[in-house]
Task: inverse folding
DNA sequence: CCGGAAAACTGACAGAGATCAGTGAATCGG
DNA sequence: CCGATTCACTGATCTCTGTCAGTTTTCCGG
């Protein structure tokens, strides 16, 4: 793997080899990079004409609010991830997007994005793949909440975050920095904060992993994987389709 | 709304006005229509090169299997819906697709599909919108399983199915035919079949809706909507984006 | 460095839903 | 049309997770 200037390039670069010009194009998307404080939503559920961003630094979550006052976090975004890509396509945002830490993000002009894709089909394919990986993660969360118990589900989330962070150079098999509070974790896992606390304690006592002071230490990777029934495939299987994009079909 | 020859055309036609030629193109996609028995998977999770279909008749579910033997149904597909569209993009199928009844479906050649989109951008946009609606439904299921109790969740699913069936002319506000068993419902709702039974009884006793002998009768639509916190928006908001597809931006 | 606020943590108790172990009702292929 | 299989349905019990009501620890701005 090449040294990458941005997590976004690192992420795409881990699936297709990026040429010098392509790296420059990706860099150009970061032109309007700005800093945003934690807690103030970047995208608002139900609002039209919401912006899209590429996240350069910090953590973000996308969530849905319910009438009863509860919220369900659908996914977390980490550096290199798109924010609100869906709302570019479907006009109205289905979810809100909130920074969980101070973040740096680049505002994306939809038209610029389309132009980039038109001129660099491989990048378009890579982003499309990334979007479809995001969908796969949502499905995985659905499966987890529907069919895994609290312990398995929590282990699964911690592993998933670890895998994603490792991809952009922000984590290893041994652990990663994680700014999520137990309340936030609870909103993502469909649990109460109290129970998240109990579950984290159990993971610690079982010698599987330790989540403390903003740091996740994975003590027994294989044990965790087994407990969570964690299947790495949904995160990094084939990568984007090249046929018809990189080269015409008959050339294969 | 015009009289439509297929549920697929009915679905797309409810969001963009379809011209005569466009209707013919949609019809041509149904060329390889075939019948498939209940229970034999059409798409297999984890397998590469899986086919895609447009469902013409019958009910289908897409699901994920877990190591423990449980399964989580991610979504149901009804006539007019795409099957395995995602696997066309990402090479490997993330979910299996199983017919719940005898079905009729049209096998789709990915290349044909791309050609159709290239020549009929409005149809491409409409299908893209439909795909994004599918994603919104998955998110809605996630929110439901994470934050709604069994009664609300079940009510929500029954309402969602009703709305979708109504769109393609297979249901009304008053009810619809529904071939789902309580076991299947349980796999979709993240509940046990026993509890689904109890929940359905309660919905019946509360005078909200009656699910019996393959028929859902909605007795108190507004009551159900309120109980489920059902927000129709995620199913039928704006429809696809026209800008940049139907006409260049400056023409607006 | 200090005080206040947020986050982490804990025990006691309650409740939603799972599991177990069945009995009736419907459906269907032969 | 009949036996078998699937599906619908029920009560009793158990357990996982939520709720309540705190205390302690950590963090952060002034």
Result:
């Amino acid at each position: 793997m090449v040294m990458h200037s941005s997590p976004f390039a690192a992420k795409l670069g881990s699936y297709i080899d990026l040429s010098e010009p392509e790296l420059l194009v990706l860099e150009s998307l970061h032109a309007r990079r700005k800093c945003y404080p934690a807690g103030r939503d970047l995208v608002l559920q139900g609002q039209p004409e919401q912006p899209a961003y590429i996240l350069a630094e910090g953590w973000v979550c996308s969530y849905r609010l319910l009438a009863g006052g509860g919220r369900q976090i659908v996914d977390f975004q980490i550096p290199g991830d798109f924010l609100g890509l869906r709302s570019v396509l479907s006009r109205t945002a289905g979810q809100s997007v909130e920074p969980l830490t101070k973040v740096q993000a680049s505002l994306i002009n939809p038209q610029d994005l389309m132009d980039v894709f038109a001129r660099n089909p491989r990048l378009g394919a890579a982003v499309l793949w990334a979007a479809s990986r995001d969908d796969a993660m949502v499905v995985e969360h659905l499966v987890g909440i529907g069919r895994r118990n609290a312990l398995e589900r929590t282990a699964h989330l911690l592993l998933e975050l670890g895998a994603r962070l490792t991809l952009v150079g922000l984590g290893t098999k041994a652990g990663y920095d994680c700014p999520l509070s137990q309340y936030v974790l609870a909103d993502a896992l469909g649990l109460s904060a109290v129970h998240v606390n109990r579950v984290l304690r159990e993971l610690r006592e079982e010698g599987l992993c330790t989540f403390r002071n903003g740091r996740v230490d994975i003590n027994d990777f294989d044990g965790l994987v087994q407990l969570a029934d964690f299947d790495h495939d949904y995160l990094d299987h084939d990568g984007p389709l090249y046929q018809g994009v990189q080269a015409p079909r008959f050339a294969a």
